[in-house]
Specification:
2 domains, Transcription Regulator spoIIAA, six-stranded mixed β-sheet, sulfate:bicarbonate antiporter activity, 10 strands, transmembrane helix, oxalate transmembrane transporter activity, 30 helices, mainly alpha
């Protein structure tokens, strides 16, 4: 290879000259260099590391108060007002006291303010994670001997015991529930931090959008089902394991006659008000500077009505109960519980990481800045690791609050500090005022918050028309979440997505190409009319990679479209003793065909072609099996006097062919120049010229 970057002019047109690559660095030298860069320390390197771990130290220096402060304060106040009722409500999903959800909202916003790379994402309590935390908490409570049919906020539930095993614990139900939740949260955060340290942010990309939408849909149905007992005011067991949703519905049907009339009326009124307000907000969104704080207004009015109407005493309606003020002393999660919930934490870590990274990247693209997936993993992981010692449970980014945050003028994560200040005010002074708040009102807030996820079911027909494989992933994930469990649904979605990806690469589209008029372009002859096939040449396109899983499909497609099974015919000719003096490179290698050339020409004449050109432009990659397939195909075609040429190979494909032994020096010249072509038209023209030269040689013989 020469060093000139200019194009060399040869008989078939310009040929690019490959650049000389530097000698590859050995593994030992590469590891030594990286270790030296990692261990070397200086003041600029240390400061750069601090800025990478705490991005707030970078953007706070560039903060412009006149432009950013008003929007950050406004969005922070709005999110803080939303966090208070949602935090109290989502405690139902997690099976914990409301104070713990307020702790979670407070600390998560502060930590993400320091470590997050997204300027608009709102991190805090998330309904799907609350559901998954609640399922683990319920299971561990049942194993510990507490009655799973009793929630922590029912009167007297804190001491309800199902069997004698709970008597050996040193705390009651609520205390043991938060111990389980903090152990689960710490393990979740450790997994996420480990993923960030190992730079595994790309893993979340394998959770496709149909998978996440189907998971959100299935989990929303599960959440809706779990809140129906609060809407009706009935006491039923909190089912666990397979078929939880179905068994819960059966229990609700059996207990429908015991519904609390006060809770039913309250739920109906609150649902009508909340849904109507949401619809009006969506319709007049452009005219509203700030979203209507409907949830807060409903909670205030419902609390006043419940307090002065004494609904708990007169009608037995369940209420939130005592909510303490202030902060509790830090506590280390129990290692014994961490071992028990280690497997459950994997699902939480994966779901939280996937939603957080996808939301951060979505808002980054829409507002013109970049986010770092690995740093997002560290940020969300620390939002779980550090608060786990402060009586908090698992958090992640939440779409609904992030959209509200953006709509109210958020410019930076300083708005999270304002939101934490609002939650702090409730923690220090206002929390006891929610003592008489009915739990049915909290359930209504949760149900209404599921509108967006439940509406995704209407996207399924459009998704089916666009991509049936994605629609099957969506439906399979949602159905498994509803009929089996949320964890199983997530696993089923991952498996279906991988199967869908494997299926698309295992059976890609294959077609024969023909020439578009007198141009130098070729397209699928079955898709376009008026194309002109080249006489004696078959141009084959395989729209996918060639590897071990689809090599047989590649050969079947090629043999079916060309009408010649070269492998079988070559083997049959060999058995009959018709050995052709053609090397593995085919007749184009410049070898003397001798007297057998006319015998070999009988097959291509019957088949109607003398050359096969493979358009390698869609060929993403090759593995060892793919290279072997091409070598065997070239050998079989060569035995029949048919040439095999490759066109439009990318540099990585050329390198694989070279390393695999497909391109070797032959007596007629460089194999790469004889078999690889820059365009399909170049390969077709060269094939025709070679065949005419071969015919002239045979005529002279």
């Amino acid at each position: 290879m020469g060093e000139s970057p200019e194009l060399l002019q040869q008989g078939r047109g310009p040929v690019p000259v490959r650049r000389q690559r530097p000698a590859p660095q050995g593994l030992r030298e590469m590891l030594k260099a990286r270790l030296w860069r990692s261990c070397s320390c200086s003041v600029p390197c240390a400061w750069a590391l601090v800025q990478d771990l705490l991005p707030a130290t970078r953007w706070l220096c560039q903060y412009r108060p006149r432009e950013y402060l008003a929007g950050d304060v406004m969005s922070g106040l709005v999110i803080g007002i939303i966090l208070v009722p949602q935090g109290i409500a989502y405690s139902l999903l997690a099976g914990l006291q409301p104070i713990y959800s307020l702790y979670t909202s407070f600390f998560a916003n502060l930590i993400y303010f320091l470590m997050g790379t997204s300027q608009h994402v709102s991190v805090g309590i998330f309904s799907l994670l609350c559901l998954m935390v609640g399922q683990v908490v319920d299971r561990e409570l049942q194993l510990a001997g507490f009655d799973p049919s009793q929630d922590g906020l029912w009167p007297g539930a804190n001491g309800s015991i199902l069997n004698g095993s709970a008597a050996t614990l040193d705390c009651g139900r609520d205390c043991y529930a938060i111990r389980v939740a903090t152990a689960l949260t710490l393990m979740t955060g450790l997994y996420q931090v480990l993923m960030g340290v190992l730079r595994l942010g790309f893993v979340s990309a394998y959770l496709s959008q149909p998978l996440l939408d189907g998971f959100a849909m299935g989990a929303s149905v599960t959440i809706l089902t779990s809140q129906l007992k609060h809407l009706l005011g009935v006491r039923i067991p909190r089912h666990q394991g397979l078929g939880m949703v179905v068994r819960t519905w059966l229990s609700l049907l059996r207990s429908a006659g015991q519904a609390n009339v006060c809770d039913v009326v309250t739920s109906t009124v609150c649902l009508v008000v909340l849904l109507a307000a949401k619809e009006l907000s969506d319709r007049y969104r452009r005219h509203l500077r700030v979203p209507l704080p409907t949830e807060l207004l409903v909670i205030v009015v419902a609390t006043l009505v419940s307090h002065f109407g004494q609904l708990h005493k007169r009608f037995g309606s369940s209420v939130a109960g005592d909510i303490p003020t202030g902060f509790m002393a830090p506590q280390v999660p129990e290692p014994r519980l961490m071992q028990r919930v280690a497997l459950d934490a994997m699902a939480l870590a994966l779901v939280g990481a996937a939603f957080s990274i996808s939301l951060a990247e979505m808002f980054g693209r829409s507002h013109g800045y970049s986010v770092r997936a690995n740093q997002e993993l560290l940020a969300v992981g620390c939002c779980n690791v550090l608060p786990a010692f402060l009586h908090c449970f698992a958090t992640s980014a939440a779409l609904a609050k992030s959209l509200v945050k953006t709509a109210t003028g958020c410019r930076t994560q300083l708005s999270g500090v304002v939101s934490s200040a609002v939650v702090l005010l409730v923690l220090l002074a206002l929390a006891p005022l929610f003592h008489d708040l009915q739990r049915s009102v909290l359930a209504c807030i949760i149900v209404v918050s599921l509108r967006g996820a439940l509406r995704k079911v209407w996207d399924l027909p459009r998704l089916w028309r666009m991509s049936p494989a994605d629609a099957l992933v969506w439906a399979g994930t949602a159905a498994t979440c509803v009929l089996v469990s949320t964890e199983t649904g997530l696993l089923a979605g991952v498996i279906l997505s991988l199967l869908s990806l494997a299926g698309r690469t295992q059976r890609p589209h294959a077609a024969l190409l023909a020439r578009i008029g007198d141009s130098a372009f070729y397209e699928d002859a079955t898709e376009f009319e008026g194309l002109v096939p080249e006489p004696g040449v078959r141009v084959f396109r395989f729209a996918g990679p060639l590897y071990y899983a689809n090599k047989d499909f590649f050969l079947r497609s090629l043999y079916s479209l060309t009408g010649l099974d070269a492998g079988c015919v070559a083997a049959r000719r060999k058995e009959q003793g018709f050995e052709v003096g053609v090397g593995e490179g085919g007749p184009a290698q410049g070898k003397d065909l001798g007297p057998v050339s006319s015998r070999a020409a009988l097959v291509p004449t019957a088949a109607g072609f003398h050359t096969v050109v493979i358009d390698c432009a869609p060929l993403l990659f090759l593995d060892a099996a793919g290279v072997t397939t091409l070598k065997d195909l070239r050998r079989d075609y060569g035995a029949l006097g048919i040439s095999l040429l490759l066109a439009c190979c990318s540099p990585p494909v050329r390198d694989i062919l070279s390393r695999g032994g497909f391109l070797e020096e032959g007596p007629g010249g460089t194999a790469e120049e004889e078999q690889l072509f820059l365009s399909v038209h170049d390969a077709v023209q060269t094939a025709g010229a070679r065949h005419r030269e071969l015919e002239a040689t045979d005529a002279r013989l």
